Amino acid sequence: MELVILGLLKRKPAHGYELLRTVRLQNMSDYIRLAPSGLYKALARLEDQGCIAARAEREGNWPERQAYSITPKGESRLQKLLLDHLRATSEYSDSLNAALTFGDAAPPAVVSEELHRRRDMILGAQEDAHQLLTEVLPEAGDTFFARLRVERWAEHLAAEIKWLDRAIAYLDGKGLAAGSTAADGHSLKAGRQWEREER
């Protein structure tokens, strides 16, 4: 969360609401969960650490609100966080992988139905990525690295669709016989067939 807050404030000073709005509009929520209460706690902590400065502002009859800007100490912290994240090994965890490990415990039709549902969800995310690339980022002053992030996300989505299409076709067409389990050998045979098709 600190990386996102400091990174956005490095671009320009902002109010808390503006930070939340940018995270939502630029679809940063795929790697940061940012609720208003969590944001304001993080802003207070960063201010206490001297990484950001707050300045009270009032526009017209609106209530006073805080505008935040990054400090030199915050810029140093941002550089460290950037390097830490660039050097980090992936801590990839996926509930789908856990479910697939035991997929033979469910009827193939049920697994296929859930993969179809997941495919529809990924197609929606692809539309979001396309909108970001063609509409949102250009309006937001598109930066090379913001575009790079969204392009990476779009590539992951495309690969997921490709995999889902193969898995669904296999489950629907070539069939794991209904009721097959690893115990009766059908799943093992099916897995070997999948591997041959991959080559």
Give structural attributes.
Arc Repressor Mutant, subunit A; 7% strand; mainly alpha; 199 residues
Structure overview:
The structure is a single chain. About 7% of the residues have low confidence. The chain has 199 residues and is mainly alpha-helical. The two termini are 42 Å apart. β2 and β3 form a beta hairpin. Helices cover 66% and strands 7% of the residues. Strands 1-3-2 form a three-stranded antiparallel β-sheet.
Task: Tell me the major beta sheet.
Answer: 3 strands, antiparallel
- Strand ordering within the main sheet: 1-3-2
Count of DSSP strands: 3
The end-to-end span amounts to 42 Å
- As a percent range, the share of helical residues equals 55-70%
Figure out the total of helices: 8
Produce the secondary structure layout.
Layout: H1 2-11, E1 14-15, H2 16-25, H3 36-48, E2 52-57, E3 65-70, H4 72-87, H5 95-101, H6 108-139, H7 144-174, H8 186-198
Antiparallel strand pairs: 1-3, 2-3
Helix pairs in contact: 1-4, 6-7
Can you describe this structure in just a few lines?
With 199 residues, the chain is mostly helical. The protein has helices spanning 2-11, 16-25, 36-48, 72-87, 95-101, 108-139, 144-174, 186-198, and strands at residues 14-15, 52-57, 65-70.
